[in-house]
Model the fold of this input.
Amino acid sequence: MIPYGRQSVCQDDIDAVVGVLKSDFLTQGTVLPEFERAVAAKAEASFAVATNSATSSLHSAVWALGLCPGDLLWTTPITFVATANCARYVGADVDFVDIDPETFNMCPDALEEKLIAAEKSGRLPQVIAPVHMCGQSPDMKRLSAVARRYGVKIIEDASHAIGARYEDEPVGCCSYSDITVFSFHPVKIVTSAEGGMALTNDTGLADRMQRFRSHGVTRDTNLMRGASDGPWYYQQLDLGYNYRMTELQAALGLSQLDRLDTFVERRNELAERYHSILGDLRLTLPHCRANCLSSYHLYVIQLQSADESDRKTFFESMRRNEIGVNVHYIPVHLQPYYRDLGFKPGDFPNSETYYRNAVSIPLFPDLTGAQQDYIAEVIAREIPR
Done:
């Protein structure tokens, strides 16, 4: 089976992890801070805070921004559920903004229209969380300008997009947001096996996220209430979690980061080749805007059919031919948990239309030309010209 995504691990990665296994520290050593500094430098951000998953980073981000019960976060329906769930973890409410059907990202026009209505009703969101779907940045300049007009804070869920660029800046620089989150899951651009990282240019937010990932505990005497009892002393200032990334994960991530540019370049080469060999089929292929460099975490094709059963037939046929297609994503508002909160079919039509037609086909750095030709051959048998 050709998977839709797969990690690429080399001997240098293995040696880096083995080096940590032979060291004195498997957690809370020196490799993790080095990984954080390297990612921050790559993204041109001031601070980076690593966690054990991007979900943990999202939770840390909303907490650091002060989201709380009674508050509201808006994101897009086309994302993994974690982007919405992070608000629920702190007791906040969730709503959604429909996508731009061309990029699959949060639509700036839909955001502006929804904010105008929200201001009139007296229920503005405190935070929006645009998603960098498939590795392409949303139109962050417009989204940020609209959101800031209403005093709304911004988290970029860039789980797909480390190594991507927008307006000639690296995704993660936080020029248009308060916090940006990356994922290092095995199918992402670089991996630490599991892991995430939140980037910011705000010292206070970085400090809060660092404390949150480690039980809410500090050893900084400047933050303590009262005098320290001695060099061993710590205080718990907040109710935090154990969201720490291990040294083993950090070593793998740090080693992988050396090949980030190569990975992104290869993914773009594969995407361009798909554009060429699938271009004459009755498919809608992904579109990358001129002001973006996508990291192409996913390559999503859309079937041009009015019959919803066609996607299922296509999907099953591809799997029978040992091609591990997938679907990213089921609109979050249609999940039973969110339906129980009042959402229903028809609420976000662009997202629902996207879902009915979308299929992710294999794309990862080690995908060969022969495999790509085979994938295109099977697709061509199923999709007429």
About this structure: Residues 260-278 form the longest helix (19 residues).
